[in-house]
Amino acid sequence: MCKALFKKIIFNFYKCKKEYQYINIGDDFEKYIKLEEEILINEYDVNSHHNNFVKRFYIDFCVYKHITKFELYKEILDAPFTRNDTKSIFEENFRKIQKIYFALIKFREIVKQKIYPKQITFDIKMAEIDPTSKHSIIICQNKKLYYFTICDILNMIEHNLTSGDFFFISPRFVKNPYNNMVFSKSTLYNIYFKYKFNTMYQNNTFDYFFECNFDITSIKNTHYSYLLKRNIKHYVDNLCQQELVIEIKKMIGCVNRLFTIKTNHININDKFPNTTLIQAFKPFYLHFMQVKYSLTYHEYFQKLSIFKANIINFIEYNPTFGRVIIRSRDHNNFISSHEYHDKYIFFNPNINVDNEFLTSHYMEKPHSVFHMYENKFICQNIIYNRILELGPHSYKYSGFLNHRYDRSPSPHDYIYDSDEMSIDSDDETEDIQFRFAPQTPDDSPPRSRVPSLDLNVTQSAEIIENNDIIDDDVIVDISGNVDS
Q1: Which residues sit opposite 175 in a β-bridge?
Q2: Are residues 24 and 46 in the same domain?
């Protein structure tokens, strides 16, 4: 339709004596010769040589070439043997033809809005839409008009592009929800320009879709990580209160397993208000899910470091969060009041961001933001190990696989683990399993850390600190004794 209209405009713009039909030169060569003679006789102007060249470019486009108008434009401007003055005339005429073309398109849309019936005139909230508002758009499909607000249509596009099952992203075509028809590419362009230039909304998903020329496959291949993050956010936002509380308590249980000292655990009383719990830990749970479904090692360790640093800040700010205040009437009677320890600090996703780039562009950040907080509690290192049962399994053994043949391991390198690698013990009554502690990149012992708190740490706990390894149950010390 658009190309046919563009051809009609060309024939009328150059005042051709007739509209010549498209022919395939390879099918009928005699017909091509006769048509060439007819065009030379009818359309050739002896007094204007350059205009004849430009006119012939457009006529050949209409009669012989099966390309788009923009491909024609590029072909002529890139032609090495075409004179610059001829190219200038071609560009000027192309602009004039385009101006006529868009005027007719706009007139067609005005006529459609006048004569076509209005099928839907309200938004998702059942409120009437003002068609003259800059925050609304009218879409015509099947000779019927559908009114949309920009906000509703952006949410609909976001939902379709970030859809997936079990956090496997599978974008879907953007459709009209009232008739289940896929929006054409021209409709998507109209929506995008309306949203971009007439409103103050910001939607990165739609921007990426536009950069990919509204290609579903391209946006999935190029921006899969971003689409996954948005899918996780929508999943967390759409959880009901009861389900969200259950998931948050599961996350807190995973966090508590990281700390060897139980006084540092987060204990949530059953009577603690769910609203306060969700307000405090919903950002933590969102980041927790992003760690769980990270796609790369770098992203996984970076997000996990930020998550653990925020958890430590949270516990340090209020170690008794979630507990009920119990008051006593006398020595034998205790009552539970309606007061709770509910003070908390907000999650800070930019906890490792500072203003050092303002003074220097080459200063390196620490490998893990967790290093800034690791001395506050005795907990296991997060860089070399799979924390909270998250992340790829193969990274667990990277230290062992890289160094098992390089040196003879010392007793400090063995940590008990009932589920991992095993070696034979000298004691025939016990079958003890071990795991090698990972080494530093330069094969030197990992640096030790001195806790800032004055805590009674056993020798077995010092082995955990020095080797940066996670295990909850049993530890083998240098002498071979087993501490539980």
Answers
A1: 182
A2: yes
Q: Provide the β-strand partners of residue 128.
A: 122
Q: Return the C-alpha torsion angle 272, 276, 280, 282, nearest 10.
A: 100
The pTM of this model reads 0.67
Residue tagged 């079990």 (tokens): 166
CA 420 centroid distance within chain:
35
Determine how many CB atoms are found less than 10 A away from the CB of residue 111: 10
CA end-to-end distance (rounded Å), the chain: 79
The residues pairing with 165 across neighbouring beta strands, listed in sequence order, are 168
User: Which single residue is written with the structure tokens 């780039």?
Assistant: 357
Q: Which ranges of 19-149 does DSSP label H, i.e. alpha helix? A: 29-43, 49-63, 69-77, 84-115
User: Do the domain assignments include residue 388?
Assistant: no
- Is 141 contained in some domain? yes
pLDDT, tens digit, 9 for 90 and up, residues 10-51? 988 988 888 888 887 777 778 888 888 888 888 877 666 667
**Stronger pLDDT, 346 or 416, i.e. the higher one:** 346
Main-chain dihedrals φ then ψ at residue 482, nearest 5 degrees: -105, 120
CB atoms within 10 A of CB 81: 4
Which CA distances in Å does 218 have to 121, 209, 214, 215?
34, 8, 8, 5
416, part of any domain = yes
Claim to verify: residue 205 and residue 299 sit in the same structural domain: no
Q: Which helix (H) or strand (E) holds 436?
A: strand 434-436
Nearest to 45 by CA among 33, 57, 60, 56: 56
- Is 132 found in the same domain as 68? no
Give domain status of residue 136, yes or no: yes
Structural domain including 140 reads: 119-234
What percent of the chain stands above pLDDT 70? Answer: 69
∠ CA 31-32-34, nearest 5°, is: 65
Say how many domains are in the chain.
4
Q: Is 80 in the same domain as 167?
A: no
Residues 160 and 281 reside in one and the same domain: no
Q: What is the CA radius of gyration of the chain?
A: 35
Is residue 393 within 8 A of residue 402, CB to CB? The reply is: no
DSSP one-letter code for 152: H
Section 438-459 average pLDDT? 39
